[in-house]
Amino acid sequence: MATTQPLPARNERSAPKWDSKYEEQLPTFFEEFETVAKAAGIDSDDAEMKKGVLRYADPESMRFWRTLPTYKEAAKTWAEFKKEVLSHYPGALEVAEATTEDLKKVVSEFAKSGISNSKELGTYHRKFSIVADSLQEHGILSGVQVASFYVQAFPDSIRLRLDTRLQVAFSKKVKGQAYSLTELREAIEFLLSDASTTVIDGFYVAKESASIRAMNALVGERPVHCVADSGCSIIAMSDATCNALGITFDPNRRIPLQSANGKTDWTFGVAKDVPFRFNDIIAFLQVHVVDSPAYDVLLGRPFEILTQARIQNFLSGDQHYTLTDPNTDKVVTIPTVPRELPRFRKEDGRDRRN
Questions:
Q1: Nearest Cα residue to 261 out of 325, 174, 192
Q2: What residue spans carry the Basic and acidic residues bias annotation (predicted)?
Q3: Shared domain check, 256 and 185
């Protein structure tokens, strides 16, 4: 036979507690009472349950609960009594009354006021999560929809870089799986702190990271966004960009590429002598075609060598490339811009693998 113990006294630490000023805590109070009632062996006795819970209610609540029909009628169960009590406290409803409009209001509020630091991000994250969790729990919104709402509070300067940051930070994420709010918050917090320098006690001090820079070029008549990466030993282009621009390549000249997570993939081939125009300078580049990277074009060391690139960085985080045309000796200085999401997708051109 299971050992029972008496219900704890009202002032004992283990006693259920509830302040009637906080209606939303009433369901938790009932759960705590049911736990001690089970330990006392009265959880199957409806009359004892209804009588026992009163000892933990404040005087006003106790008097009111005694007036309820489900308390007075012996045939009424504990479950029926509890349901009736909850119906008199709108803030304690177990089914949340949140709507997508409530979520939009939270997003709109912070989109207008702005989120520029970790503290503001934390406040937004907490308010958003309360509403979003309810909507998701009751099947009103999916994880993908919640994530879509979440990022709308941030400016374009953050959203344009977010996808790339997520791919870097969560490289093993299953394709098509929604990012959690925690993952989104971590990535955005990184981007908010991503400035080149700060000033401490009158001295310039480098931050831990700085955003990747890019420049725009023309390939034929089409503008192309090019990520600058001095640490890369090749010039690469996504297959979607290659398709959209109609560039031909040699499929027999493939090389292996190892990603950050250790996986090795092969390029599709090399496009020879592709003309890239940077203002008045034309550079003919040998471009490796790559399967769906997080960029349109990546300009590695061969580009810098060919154009004799000189790179100037500024404390603001800005960066200039001074290029020399290898054929005409023309010189031009090009300000870089923050990295953007890829402009070309599979739907922009045929998928060569089908």
A1: 174
A2: 10-20
A3: no
pLDDT, one tens digit per residue, over 282-330 is 999 999 999 888 889 999 999 999 999 999 887 667 789 999 998 899 9
For the chain, give me the number of helices (H) and strands (E)? 12, 14
Residues 98 and 120 sit within 8 Å (Cβ to Cβ): no
Q: 60-105 pLDDT, tens per residue?
A: 999 999 999 999 999 999 999 999 998 888 777 655 567 888 899 9
Give the domain range for residue 283: 213-347
For the range 48-51, what are the long-range contacts, defined as Cβ-Cβ under 8 Å and sequence gap of 24 or more? Answer: 49/78, 49/81, 50/78, 50/81
Tell me the residue type at 70. T
Distance from C-alpha of 67 to C-alpha of 64, rounded to nearest angstrom: 5
State both tokens at 164. Answer: 């790339």
DSSP 8-state code for residue 296: S
Burial class (CB in 10 A: 0-12, 13-18, 19+), 155: exposed
**Helices 143-151, 100-113: crossing angle, 10 deg rounding:** 30
Helix (H, G, I), strand (E, B) or coil at 146: helix
Domain endpoint, select from 138, 160, 192: 192
| 10 neighbors 56 (Cβ within 8 angstroms) | yes
Q: Do β-strands 281-290 and 236-238 pair in parallel, antiparallel, or remain unpaired?
A: parallel
Determine the pLDDT at residue 354.
Answer: 38
Please tell me the predicted confidence (pLDDT) of residue 203.
56
Which phi and psi angles does 270 have, rounded to 5°?
-120, 130
Quick one: CA torsion of 315, 201, 121, 105, rounded to 10 degrees? -90
Is 3 inside any structural domain? no
* Phi, then psi, of 344 in degrees rounded to 5: -105, 130
| CA distance linking residue 42 with residue 259, whole number of Å | 62
The pLDDT tens digits of the residues spanning 171-220 come to 677 766 788 899 999 988 887 775 444 545 555 555 555 667 889 999 98
